[in-house]
Design brief:
alpha/beta, nine-stranded mixed β-sheet, three-stranded antiparallel β-sheet, 19 strands, about 20% strand
Length: about 450
């Protein structure tokens, strides 16, 4: 039996299509402050190293370089054609790894590694080998660890993919976005179905055990007919996981998005229908819906975890690896460790200056209060497993705010729990906003993308 494909009338869509966080973290990044600095991050690292030394870590490394800037991109990137710049950058990353590891004591076990960007395969084989050596000198990558890398098939060679497999990478995330030529032209991509197919075929032959595709709905010139072609091509390649993200159009925050033709963006009903179209296509093919915008093949561990209510989520996405602490290296890297968030500086020059002074390159962060952590737990439960235990006083505290959503068929309050209903999966961000203590009355913030 297929999961129900939710329907929403225009009046409800208008009420819930507001600006709101994606909740990759709680409290969200705009709440973090420069009052939390390098000394604070050093303290939480030392505290994390002295406690639960056996608990595994997740490690993220940000490689900011790209050959060119895509007009839709919302990431922190440095456009360059000079790979030698990466050598200098790796010098800095190595110094940061040394400073962090020294504060962690004997706590070095890692069960998840993720290279993101930018374009991690901007690094050539020697640079990839060097980076992997840095990590494995200072951390113990545990047997069975998930070792993932993001790739753009249009600028990554098959030889690079083979080298990554030899280093031990076993999970691949392909940036696909959309395969229709007109949509790609509008966003500055140039990736054919044939390139993507060659990557998937080789990755499977090399033993990558999980292949993820990133898609985006709401891009310029996407129509149901064009999107249907992309969805059919994606299903023909049968990735293990699919992330189908809402396009976050925030030109005031990301100036490169000003190149886009805003009049060609599907909005409101048209955008929501693209998500429902993807939902229908993937559910019909047997993929299990995960959270609000992910799908997993029946054999995939995410599908099993979703069925058993044990999904987890961190800055790298949905996962079954419930590492309590994530350490990030590189510019803008975000660490979540020992009840605190810490984000690195944005520019390479600032990053170099901090490390040259022997200082952790922390720009801002936040030490979570007990109330922050309670609400974080509730939001994570909703975003991952569509359910959260409100606790003994929770229904009295949150019930009034949840009742209108319950009346609209988005969620249900049952025995002290809030459970997301099928229609509510389209509005998970809106449901989570009820538990956000920092939004104020309206929940509107111009720095956030719209929930639809």
């Amino acid at each position: 039996m297929l999961p129900e494909i939710p329907t929403v009338d225009d009046e409800m869509l208008a009420r819930y299509d507001v600006a709101g966080p994606r909740y990759t973290s709680y409290p969200t990044a705009p709440i973090w402050t420069d009052a939390f600095g390098p000394a604070d991050y050093a303290a939480v690292l030392e505290a994390a190293g002295s406690e639960a030394a056996q608990a595994p870590l997740s490690v993220y490394v940000h490689i900011p370089f790209c050959w060119h800037m895509c007009s839709y991109c919302g990431c922190n990137v440095v456009v360059s054609r000079n790979r030698e710049r990466a050598d200098d950058y790796l010098d800095l990353v190595e110094r940061e790894i040394e400073l962090v590891a020294a504060r962690l004591g004997d706590r070095r076990g890692v069960n998840q590694v993720h290279l993101g960007g930018g374009t991690p395969t901007f690094l050539d084989d020697d640079q990839q080998t060097r980076l992997w050596g840095m990590l494995t000198r200072h951390f113990d990558v545990l047997p069975g660890a998930e070792v993932a890398v993001e790739v753009n098939p249009s600028v990554t060679s098959l030889a690079q993919l083979s080298h990554l497999a030899r280093l031990g990478f076993n999970r691949l995330s392909l940036g696909v976005q959309d395969l229709h030529p007109e949509v790609q032209a509008a966003i500055g991509r140039d990736q054919t179905f044939e390139q993507t197919q060659a990557f998937v075929d080789l990755a499977r032959g090399l033993g990558f055990h999980s292949i993820n595709f990133d898609l985006i709905y709401g891009l310029p010139h996407q129509t149901p007919r064009r999107f249907a072609e992309t969805l059919a091509q994606v299903l023909a390649l049968a990735p293990d996981r699919i992330a189908c993200y809402s396009f976050a159009f925030v030109p005031d925050v990301k100036p490169n998005q000003r190149k886009l033709d805003a009049s060609a963006l599907p909005r409101g009903r048209a955008k929501l229908d693209l998500l429902r179209q993807a939902w229908q296509a993937f559910a019909s093919a047997g993929y299990a819906p995960i959270g609000m915008d992910h799908f997993a093949a029946p054999h995939d561990s995410l599908a099993h975890a979703a069925a058993e209510g044990r999904l987890w989520r961190n800055f790298m996405g949905y996962t079954v690896r419930q590492a309590g602490d994530t350490i990030a290296f590189g510019v803008t890297g975000i660490s979540e460790i020992h009840g605190a968030f810490a984000q690195n500086v944005r520019s390479i020059s600032e990053y170099r200056e901090a490390l040259a002074a022997g200082r952790l390159p922390t720009e801002k962060g936040l030490l979570l209060t007990a109330e922050d952590r309670r609400r974080q737990h509730l939001i994570t439960g909703l975003m991952c497993n569509l359910s959260a235990d409100l606790g003994p006083e929770g229904e009295a505290h949150f019930g009034e705010a949840l009742r209108p959503l319950e009346a609209d068929g988005l969620c249900a309050l049952r025995d002290g729990r809030v459970e997301v209903l099928p229609r509510g999966r389209l509005f998970l961000r809106n449901i989570a906003m009820v538990f956000d203590d920092y939004l104020g009355n309206s929940g509107e913030r111009p720095r956030f993308s719209r929930t639809i």
